[in-house]
Amino acid sequence: xxxxxxxxxxxxxxxxxxxxxxxxxxxxxxxxxxxxxxxxxxxxxxxxxxxxxxxxxxxxxxxxxxxxxxxxxxxxxxxxxxxxxxxxxxxxxxxxxxxxxxxxxxxxxxxxxxxxxxxxxxxxxxxxxxxxxxxxxxxxxxxxxxxxxxxxxxxxxxxxxxxxxxxxxxxxxxxxxxxxxxxxxxxxxxxxxxxxxxxxxxxxxxxxxxxxxxxxxxxxxxxxxxxxxxxxxxxxxxxxxxxxxxxxxxxxxxxxxxxxxxxxxxxxxxxxxxxxxxxxxxxxxxxxxxxxxxxxxxxxxxxxxxxxxxxxxxxxxxxxxxxxxxxxxxxxxxxxxxxxxxxxxxxxxxxxxxxxxxxxxxxxxxxxxxxxxxxxxxxxxxxxxxxxxxxxxxxxxxxxxxxxxxxxxxxxxxxxxxxxxxxxxxxxxxxxxxxxxxxxxxxxxxxxxxxxxxxxxxxxxxxxxxxxxxxxxxxxxxxxxxxxxxxxxxx
Amino acid sequence: xxxxxxxxxxxxxxxxxxxxxxxxxxxxxxxxxxxxxxxxxxxxxxxxxxxxxxxxxxxxxxxxxxxxxxxxxxxxxxxxxxxxxxxxxxxxxxxxxxxxxxxxxxxxxxxxxxxxxxxxxxxxxxxxxxxxxxxxxxxxxxxxxxxxxxxxxxxxxxxxxxxxxxxxxxxxxxxxxxxxxxxxxxxxxxxxxxxxxxxxxxxxxxxxxxxxxxxxxxxxxxxxxxxxxxxxxxxxxxxxxxxxxxxxxxxxxxxxxxxxxxxxxxxxxxxxxxxxxxxxxxxxxxxxxxxxxxxxxxxxxxxxxxxxxxxxxxxxxxxxxxxxxxxxxxxxxxxxxxxxxxxxxxxxxxxxxxxxxxxxxxxxxxxxxxxxxxxxxxxxxxxxxxxxxxxxxxxxxxxxxxxxxxxxxxxxxxxxxxxxxxxxxxxxxxxxxxxxxxxxxxxxxxxxxxxxxxxxxxxxxxxxxxxxxxxxxxxxxx
Lengths: 491, 478
Fold this sequence. Notes:
The structure holds 2 protein chains of 2 kinds. Chain A is α/β, with parallel strands linked by helices. Chain A has helices spanning 8-16, 22-40, 48-63, 106-113, 156-163, 180-186, 220-230, 274-289, 305-320, 339-350, 353-366, 371-393, 418-423, 429-433, 463-477, 487-490; strands at 43-46, 75-79, 117-122, 169-174, 189-192, 212-217, 260-264, 293-297, 398-402, 438-445, 451-457. In chain A, helix 2 packs antiparallel against helix 3 (48-63), helix 5 packs parallel to helix 6 and helix 9 crosses helix 12. The two termini of chain A are 19 Å apart. Chain B is α+β, with helices and mostly antiparallel strands. Chain B has 3 domains: 6-288, no CATH class; 299-411, no CATH class; 420-476, Arc Repressor Mutant, subunit A (Orthogonal Bundle), CATH 1.10.10. Helices cover 39% and strands 20% of the residues of chain B. Chain B has 15 helices and 16 strands. Chain B has a 9-stranded mixed beta sheet with strand order 2-6-7-10-1-11-12-13-14. In chain B, strands 5-4-15 form a 3-stranded antiparallel beta sheet, with no helix packed on it. In chain B, helix 2 packs antiparallel against helix 3 and helix 7 runs antiparallel to helix 8 (342-359). Chain B is elongated, with a radius of gyration of 29 Å. Classes of the chains: A alpha/beta, B alpha+beta. At the A-B interface, helix 9 and helix 10 of A face loops of B.
């Protein structure tokens, strides 16, 4: 068994037992990246030098007993929309092609404190706008399970890197499903924490009221451990919440006896592929057989989630992305005639089509005369959606459903019809609108070997309910991470 | 021909820079005048990934100003983003308040020639200041300095309740005084810590509807405000009289030219696409918060003035001038506390202090001398250790330098010579050397003694008490 097949927790235990050094782990990952990148394109930047030197200092910390945590010495990949001090951070956009931050995001600092070693920055949809990682300025990432297909998005690089063993775990961000959907497409575990659990300081904002950083891992246990490391109160983020229930690993118990699971009928209606429906319902049966109480219910307002989400996210994005103007950092057009021409050319050349589409949509819904009709109305619907979930969670501990209507689409098929692409977010975006935690766990394989994910949703700050259900399912199903072939090992 | 008489209608938007030590959304210093971009961080330079966190002191000052101007405090308030592109605005949106400003529906009373008049305040909102652009004509490029970016401001928006320049100045003086007394800002127009934009329209007397208004910017002194109001009133009346229409626009006042020019009209007004800033959580203001601010409320000018006349028996005139600046009033009270006679302190403040301030074009806010020093100086004079002329000289030094008047007087040998014998010898010499003046005096020209006193003071190098010299001369010339 290769070192690369270990989970993050197994690796760190093996390092502590001196079976491997941190450098062994980092080198193994770097070699794997060299092998696979041509096939998958998971990374925008690989920090070989930084990772190797960090490996030595972390090893020292482990040896002298200062680094004792479960992530010490574990190589991690970070989505390229989280600032890393001194390391290129592009959001997979031309407009930030040369941007090197002067500070690291809080979540990255938390991982560094835990002794994780940052290997590099992963590819993504430009500014996290997209569901396929095809809108990246640096080219699409491919799904390691089947490179003809997309890995999902926007955290496609992070999901692929975990699936392809090009890291032991990764950080992603989820604004409308950007962790859970690629996790589902790539067959890894991905969690979007409750809004406010993880500091957004240093995360380059897309939709500020919806964005949340979270882990993509090989299994549920790794996911719980990473959550414990990155969920911290941060006074630099006004929306950060101080909690004393961050002991997520305490929920890793193979026991769902009496756990109340709600199945929203609306999530199994038209538009859902049969193979996905079957796989998810089969997984629900597994939980039922282990003693969970399962009940169907109607979650209202599901059809309103997509227009609400695209109104709010685009509005916030149109404002958040104003700072990319060619003045202070990033790309500036070569030739221009005066200030306004510079702004116009820089932004026209620096942003891709999907980003421009959302900036225009967002500017429109905030325009005078339209604000009340669109943006304000969307905020009201958002509040109603939250209320619908509140009602559901008065009855259920966990809501279970699919992550996406289908398995990963073929490369090159999605961007020509943006509306269809937006519609594929239907099962994930309500979770962001309501600020809830959600997780995608592999629950089977469909045609062409493409993974299917099951989604667990809980009430705000009830991540432990999710972890408990997901862990019990994982134990029963044996759907553990399996490595994929690439490059040489595929020949 | 019947001449139409017009009425001017004026409303003000006043920006006040708050006196916090740090910026509104980050920990950077608000100090004025640092090297460019030295008081900056990722937040106030709009770096990707940075997030704002509200400085609580800003909220306290804003609420304090709101309470002092009789406003309702908005118990659930939010910040909004005002979106516009400009290089001094690092995020290309300004964090401000549109939908739920912190204070609403207030008023202040001003004194006019027709008596007391309320000027209503529509709202007060909190916002961040922008950076500063420095244009380099030589290099044909612009630089941006973000030191000022994120300095906290409140904007006080009045209703269109003022009718002439006098009322506008009275309103501004009232705001300035209230805010200075609260310690919320130093309110210096020249330095831009208080900035007023004048919204002005004219209408025939008796007409109910408002005329079309213009907004005047770049008014850096009360004098400029007065001139701009008068100039704009005249310009609008001329337009109407000639049968044209006033255009709603923003104009920039050029005080040197005594004229204004259009900056932008309503047509090219930008759509700021305001929406609630998702990075800042809504603020809930509790009763406790409000009462804690009320408790800290200082004695305002009117109460102080009344106390000065009753407690210190100051003439009303003195009390009015001294309380006209919070700093001046503080200096007055501290000096009196050091044991100096109130009227004498008042004389120093109204006389010498005001003279030096005027000469050096300083504001009472700029007073830095210590009250202990002034009290000592007054005591030296009272005990006749120095005379009035010397005291003035010492005060001038004391105003700018941190000196101990007692030691300074000793060191420089400025003490009055109280040795009768020595003085007598000098006086006798002066009498001997000036027979003409002596004769003049003796033949009834009383004024001649002044010359002899002067000669004696000169010979004594100023270190004598002029009254004693006068008395001795009279005695010897009997």
